[in-house]
């Protein structure tokens, strides 16, 4: 398993910024409607491993389907930076859009297929 590292990142315009600690061991390649249309790839973190450093006032929440995942988008550039939700056991989770990590190269990361379309 990879070692955990601290990463920084944010939206395209830079108004929303975060810091997180993760090993990037599991990154989704989900085929649900929103992940497909937006090209989202999420890493799931405990809330204590994610800190929003700037831009809380620049976030707009987007809910769809069962309203279980609260997507957080920058109101200026429209980037879906992260989402908040709950795991099946009820514990809170942050779904980080891995594309928002500074310097990330998606082609170098291993993706885990998720069949969100048929859930």
Put the structure in a nutshell.
The chain has 119 residues and is mainly beta. It contains one helix and ten strands, in the order E-E-E-H-E-E-E-E-E-E-E.
Gross morphology is: globular
SS strand fraction = 35-45%
| CATH architecture descriptor text | Beta Complex
Q: If you consult CATH, what is the topology?
A: Metal Binding Protein, Guanine Nucleotide Exchange Factor, Chain A
H/E element order: EEEHEEEEEEE
Give the biggest beta sheet: 5 strands, antiparallel
Structural class: mainly beta
Low-confidence stretches: none
Average pLDDT across residues? 94
Tell me the count of domains. Answer: 1
Q: Would you state the CATH class?
A: Mainly Beta
Rg: 13 Å
What is the helix tally? 1
Please bin the fraction of helical residues. under 10%
Sheet with the most strands: spatial strand order:
4-9-8-7-6
């Amino acid at each position: 398993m990879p070692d955990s590292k601290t990463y920084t990142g944010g939206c395209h315009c830079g108004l929303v910024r975060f810091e997180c600690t993760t090993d990037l061991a599991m990154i989704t390649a989900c085929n649900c409607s929103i992940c497909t249309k937006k090209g989202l790839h999420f890493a799931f973190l405990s809330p204590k491993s994610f800190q929003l450093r700037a831009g809380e006032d620049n976030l707009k929440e987007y809910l769809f389907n069962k309203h279980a995942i609260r997507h957080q988008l920058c109101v200026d550039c429209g980037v879906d930076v992260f989402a908040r939700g709950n795991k099946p056991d009820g514990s809170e989770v942050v779904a980080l859009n891995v594309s928002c990590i500074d310097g990330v190269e998606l082609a170098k990361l291993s993706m885990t297929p998720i069949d969100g379309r048929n859930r």
